[in-house]
Amino acid sequence: MKSRMLITTVAAVALAISGAVAAEGKAMEKTGEKTSAVQGEVLDLSCYMGHGGQGEGHAGCAAKCLKGGQPMGLLGADGAVYVLFADHGDASAFEKAKELAGKKVEVTGEVATKGALKGITVHAVKAL
Fold first, then answer.
1. pLDDT tens for residues 88-121?
2. DSSP-based helix, strand, coil % in the chain, nearest 5
3. Rounded distance between C-alpha atoms, residue 62 and residue 58, angstroms
């Protein structure tokens, strides 16, 4: 029961943070060039934060959680975790990323940070 409450709390916090960051996107600091490519694993953040869920063995659960609306992230090759955001003009790449839950991918998009939070507005995604 405590585990379920922790997961729910973590998911709610991640969702609130992702909404605040998306709403205040103009206040975020852009890093590097306008678009960057980052390689890593597509995560559902609720399971990753709640119990370390990641990898091929967790791919089915991650896909189900992302389909259910849990926040999505990318565990970069450098260990950094990025919150993934849909492009307001075209969310198709973001939706495609959900289908690659638990897989190694390359995400191309606008990378931004605000404090310790890192995010990517997804413009393209491809499996590696």
1. 999 999 999 999 999 999 999 999 999 999 999 9
2. 40, 35, 25
3. 6
d(CA 100, CA 63): 8
What SS3 state is found at 125?
A: strand
30-65 exposure pattern, b = at least 16 Cβ within 10 A, e = fewer: eeeeeeeebebbbbbbbbbbbeebbeeebbeebbeb
Per-residue model confidence (pLDDT) at position 3: 53
* Residue-range domain boundaries for the chain: 2-127
Q: Which listed CATH number (1.20.1530, 2.40.50, 1.20.120, 2.60.40) goes with 2-127?
A: 2.40.50
- Distance CA(115)–CA(28), nearest Å, equals 9
41's tokens: 């694993």
Output the six-digit token pair for 68: 């259910």
Whether this prediction's pTM lies above 0.70 is answered by yes
Cβ neighbours of residue 84 closer than 8 Å, sequence gap 6 or more: 42, 72, 73, 74, 94, 97, 107, 119, 120, 122
Could you report the per-residue pLDDT of 17-38, keeping only the tens digit for each?
544 444 444 434 444 447 899 9
